[in-house]
Amino acid sequence: MLKFIAFFRRFRVFLVFLILQIAALSSYFTVMSFPRTAFFNSSTAVTGTLLSWERDIVKYLYLDEANEKLQAENVLLEKRIADNFISIDTNTALINDTLRRLSFERTPATVINSSHTHANNYFTINAGSDKGIERKMGVVSSNGIVGIVYDVSENFAIVKSVLTTDINISAFINKSNAHGLIKYEGTNPRRVNLTGFSNDIEVEIGSKVLARGSGGYFPPGEPIGIVEKIEPVEGQPRWNIIVRLNQDMRKLRYVYVIKNIHKLELETLEKKIPELQ
């Protein structure tokens, strides 16, 4: 007890100051609403910023998983699109899909390696023969055509990009229905050439360029790009048509591999066509 009294006597001035200071601050924050609000708002802002950072990090970590789910959902939706079916009986009203057969299937995949700066470019996807991928299958993105499968292993596939000088994809312009071949000149990864158009065919800038469906690689009408520029070929009665690709190949990430269920039947039949003299 004597020690307590001695301690109080020694620090009595400081203890009285501390008690008065606490009382003053308590009264201040109780009576004045602004400092109290500012204090709590500052705490809330800091907490909100930390939570926002956490949410962004989590979203980034699960971005691939979310995109894979979206790809799977897109495949299901694609199976409902009429362009992916062939009609069994055109004279019968289509009540449900028992009157149609699925003609094209799509398998989602992710690009894990790619090039776009060479004359001939390729990219690798994480889907192979174990998922039914085969050579000469078409490959598209959500924006349009991107290439054709070149080689396959069990778990991976190499795709010949649309940015390849020896790739020939049959295409047509939707406003004229005239058709030609998509070719890459090896200079600009955003643009390809549409060849085979005589200059008596009217072509409008801004027209959509779509896949014709020849060879069975792609469904007819699959997007490719838009007509950006029309140039006459010197000394020839033809147009050189510059097409801006829908898909920026420098940013290619998620794709779908196209399986034409009737491709073998188509190839077998077309082999019977006599060679042109």
Provide a compact summary of the structure.
It contains five helices and 14 strands. The radius of gyration is 33 Å and the shape is elongated. It has a domain at about 105-260: Rod shape-determining protein MreC, domain 1 (Thrombin, subunit H, Beta Barrel).
Structure description:
- By secondary structure, the chain is an alpha+beta fold.
- The chain has a domain at 104-260: Rod shape-determining protein MreC, domain 1 (Thrombin, subunit H, Beta Barrel), CATH 2.40.10.
- It is built from five helices and 14 strands.
- The strands form three sheets. The chain has a six-stranded antiparallel beta barrel. Strands 8-9-10-13-12-11 form a six-stranded antiparallel β-barrel.
- It is elongated and about 120 Å long.
- Residues 84-101 have low confidence and may be disordered.
CATH architecture classification of the domain at 104-260: Beta Barrel
Number of strands: 14
Number of helices, where a helix is a run of at least 4 consecutive DSSP H or I residues: 5
> What portion of the residues fall into strands of 2 or more residues?
25-35%
Instruction: Kindly provide the name of the CATH class of the domain at 104-260.
Output: Mainly Beta
Percent of residues in helices = 25-40%
Strand order of the largest sheet: 3-4-7-6-5-14
GO cellular component, one term: plasma membrane
Domain Rod shape-determining protein MreC beta-barrel core: 111-259
Protein name: Cell shape-determining protein MreC
Organism: Brumimicrobium glaciale
